[in-house]
Amino acid sequence: MTRYPSSSVGMRQTKILLLATIVLLAVFLSGCPFGAAQVTGGWSGTAFRDGTIYAGTLQGAVVAINATTRSPQWPDPHRVTIPAEGLQCGPAAVAAPLYATPTVVGDVVYIGTYAGEVLALNTVARSQGLPFPQRGAGEWVEFLDGQAGNNAVVADLAVRDDLLYVSASDGRVYCLSRAFGDFVARSEVLDQRHRKLWTSPVIHNEAVYVSTFEGHIRALSADTLELLDWSFEADAGFASSPVIHDDILYVGSFDNRLYAVRIGDSDPLWTFRGGQWFWASPVVYEGVVYASCLDGRVYAIGAETGVELGRFNSGSPIVSSPVLMDDLLIVANEQGVVDVFDLSGGPESLEVPFRSITIGDKVRSSFSAHDGFVYIRGEDNHLYVVDIDEGRVVWDVPLDIEE
Amino acid sequence: MIAVWELIILEPILNVLIALSQILFGQFGLAIIALTVIVRLISWPLNKRQLKATKAMQDMQPKMQELQKKYGKNQQKLQQETMKLYKEAGVNPLGCLWPMLIQLPIWIALYQSIMRALAATPENLLNLHRHLYSWEIVHQAIPLSSRFLWLDLSRPDPYFILAIIVGGTMWVQQKMTTAPSVDPKQQSTARMMTVMMPFMFGILTLMFPSGLALFWAVSNVIGIVSQHVFAGGWGYLKLSSPFQPRS
Asked: pTM of the prediction?
């Protein structure tokens, strides 16, 4: 039986409905808990050079930590900001996420930012706390699109002699001079469908190789960034940046495959299927490819044959690339467990880790290793230093910068 | 709770959306349109009830006008007679609103799926793998292209075209379905809703990814077409048209 509202009840019901609609709309549009476009601060990793650890932070800055004294070396790190998007009640600009890991060449640290700029930071000038940029010291900042926030850089930079190569979110590769940040060359749009390049360029024999979301590997002249004759096309988009070893490119795809492609060939040398995307770039060591996968496993695969030689299940997705230190293979999974494998016994030693260390925080960043220590930036914006011999975190330091 | 929501509602919609994108020539915009149509078809029983209520209210209009003439000066009597009329016709004047509210969770899931599938940021792209089925077609479609016509579906439309379409179609739809009330207060609320909602959504279109706005626009257009076809014409839009000859 249908109930009929009296005028006042009808009015009240209308108001309730109106209120419910507004509340639901507010939840619906707030986006935060329901997966709207989300930028958390990036997963910039660490680079170790001459006793200093360089890392991108969640506050859009590059910091330098002295590995001996464990103290910050740069008193006032330069912070990158980006215009806030959407409905904002807060500031008009927020910290720009850093996804790329700092690249250190000599006294200069280079990094690309989500704000679409490339920075050159002189370690001496930063240690002295001088205003940025000190052009006389080789410092500069260059927007790839002339305006903040328009052409995000997500991938690591590549260096060749005096030149820097940058993949950008307009689908192009840019070549800049290291000295002044001048534009030397710019490629055409390499991914017409997505118009974004989030994988790093790789330099090999005077050519630049880039994998695209469209599923192509493009080869460009390193001098002019013009397309070379050879390219490769896969059935699905590429998730990882390529690694080149003995003229063979190894690259992970979104159809859960790792591709091995000999430069110049149109067919893959082999493909290897994992249980999820191969998001991170693999490493190659003594004829074996070690590839970490979002299915939580590390696979050892014959570099020429594509045959599986061993595997290890870390139990959690692996976002960051494995790192080699002498005979040791170091893998960090998303749950913050660092597994170390002694490869001197061959790929079979991948079955059981030589060390398994929990750092206590999530890891998505790429990390570095030097002289028995592993330097990892956790998702809590702390730098964790793991001593492999001792099998534990020996110290950690927050990377937060005081306001 | 969130895990259940994701497992039962969000992930099926997300995966179907991505698979549709691969089938429809890699065009995510077409996938949004197709999925909006599919969701409308699935929710047809609810829509049908809503349309029926609207149609019945439309048919009652001549009688309502008669009551207005007869009891225009006595509001209380007018309301009583109006309620009596509703009862005789078996119509609940709010009946057309409840189906809309029940459908909102589906629209929320659709919105979330669009946002997740577009994976506009590196985090979104990386997190997407957790929600994908092992279907080959889904993995081959990733990452989706956000380009469709003049739009970047992950960003607001810079040319205001979509905002005008969303606001305009929503206004038309509201006008078609909002029954005039004899109660001046209700009439005033209804009038405010008819203007405010399209205006609000028009503004939101300028702020939110155009993939979402495309879904709103398509949803509105489907609503208008089904209203026109199944409820017989332009409904209250025609009744309140400024081109309607005055009696």
From this structure: 0.84
